[in-house]
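Design a sequence for this backbone.
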């Protein structure tokens, strides 16, 4: 099996301009621990050319894998021989990629002609940064754009600070896009920035009340280098890039999974020491400048009360721990808050989110921001996995951006109000 996939992956790389044509995303239903171990072994084979969108954790969670067209027969035959059931959830990845790119090109032209910004569209880094400048200019008494440092490739890292004044007030942190390919998280954060500003301007509850007590720090693009890389190819070859873009010990494999690089149980379960792996943790804790920049700001501030992060996909709302199945000391309260926030989210469009700890709900994840923040006394930590549950995966159509953002806002709004009402 490994030899077949290695040969197919090599052939596909030679013809990368049509790499995704005929690629499928398979949803695999592991029915036993033996199935899980077989899938884990397959995932560790980084030369296979398989792209695991979700991971083999338990029989309760499906495993989604993007399989190159040239490897489909071998993979399906392998699964059948091992009696591992599967279904096809995306029949042709290329079709979705082409539609996404065509929509972006069309939207960019419309925005250029109308000098407007369309929240129901995906945008590149430059456009997002320009949007931030425009928003700050329109709400200069409320918002400042703060440069917290540069990336590995020397791009600026910006946050939007929403504040009604005061030094180092209690604060709420929200970030998006630490995994580059999760475009719906960036687009949601863009919408959220505008919504917070608008609600404050129009005195729409509860934003003015929240901002009278706390500041909000919003980082729309936590991994600028990786995000640029997902946009940079004339083919769609790099659309599914997850990591940063730093050099590693293997010259053929770039990037670190920035959400495995935090100084919290670094090197534990759910993180790889292989530079070619999607979840490569990096050479040491907080070795990556992007993580260090965020950590330094939060530690220097010293008064963050909540840390929330936006990812995709699977529709989950989670809390600590990521590295361990042990209950966090505040587990009961965190679960209740997350459950109520999930109900608030559901009230908009009926979207159902699963609630639980990261370890038990999605996968073990050591070196993640969840445990770093919680271990440093930031009690109210929540991680969102936004839409959908697999029909589109990382290729969620742009016409779902606003609905996704709006329902996420309902949940965030509940959490922020709760944090304000429960000081510690």
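Sequence:
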């Amino acid at each position: 099996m490994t030899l077949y996939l290695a040969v197919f992956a090599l052939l596909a790389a030679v013809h990368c301009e049509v790499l995704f044509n005929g690629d499928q995303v398979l949803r695999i239903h592991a029915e036993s621990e033996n199935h899980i171990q077989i899938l884990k072994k397959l995932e560790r084979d980084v030369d296979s050319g398989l792209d695991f969108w979700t991971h083999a954790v338990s029989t309760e969670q499906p495993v989604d894998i993007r399989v190159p067209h040239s490897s489909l027969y071998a993979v399906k035959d392998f699964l059948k021989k091992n009696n591992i059931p599967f279904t096809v959830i995306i029949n042709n990845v290329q079709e979705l990629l082409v539609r996404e790119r065509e929509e972006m090109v069309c939207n960019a032209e419309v925005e250029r002609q109308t000098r407007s910004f369309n929240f129901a569209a995906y945008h590149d880094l430059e456009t997002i940064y320009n949007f931030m400048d425009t928003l700050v200019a329109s709400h200069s008494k409320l918002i400042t754009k703060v440069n917290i440092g540069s990336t590995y490739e020397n791009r600026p890292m910006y946050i939007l600070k929403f504040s009604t004044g005061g030094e180092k007030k209690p604060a709420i942190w929200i970030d998006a896009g630490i995994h580059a390919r999760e475009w719906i998280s960036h687009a949601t954060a863009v919408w959220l920035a505008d919504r917070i500003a608008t609600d404050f301007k129009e005195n729409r509850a509860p934003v003015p009340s929240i901002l009278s007590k706390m500041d909000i720090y919003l980082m729309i693009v936590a991994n600028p280098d990786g995000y640029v890389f997902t946009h940079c190819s004339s083919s769609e070859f790099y659309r599914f890039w997850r990591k940063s873009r730093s050099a590693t010990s293997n010259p053929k494999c770039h990037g670190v999974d920035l959400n495995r690089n935090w100084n919290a149980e670094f090197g534990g379960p759910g993180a790889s020491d292989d530079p070619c792996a999607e979840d490569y943790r990096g050479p040491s804790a907080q070795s990556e400048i992007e993580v260090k920049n965020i950590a330094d700001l939060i530690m220097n501030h010293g008064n963050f009360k909540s840390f929330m992060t936006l990812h995709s996909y699977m529709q989950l709302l989670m809390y600590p721990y990521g590295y361990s199945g042990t209950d966090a000391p505040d587990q009961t309260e965190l679960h209740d808050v997350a459950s109520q926030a999930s109900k608030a989210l559901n009230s908009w469009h009926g979207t159902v989110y699963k609630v639980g700890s990261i370890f038990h709900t999605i996968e073990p994840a050591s070196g993640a921001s969840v445990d770093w923040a919680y271990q440093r006394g930031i009690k109210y930590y929540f991680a969102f996995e936004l839409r959908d549950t697999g029909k589109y995966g990382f290729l969620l159509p742009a016409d779902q951006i606003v609905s996704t953002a709006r329902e996420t806002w309902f949940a965030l709004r509940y959490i922020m109000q709760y944090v304000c009402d429960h000081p510690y």
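The radius of gyration is 21 Å.
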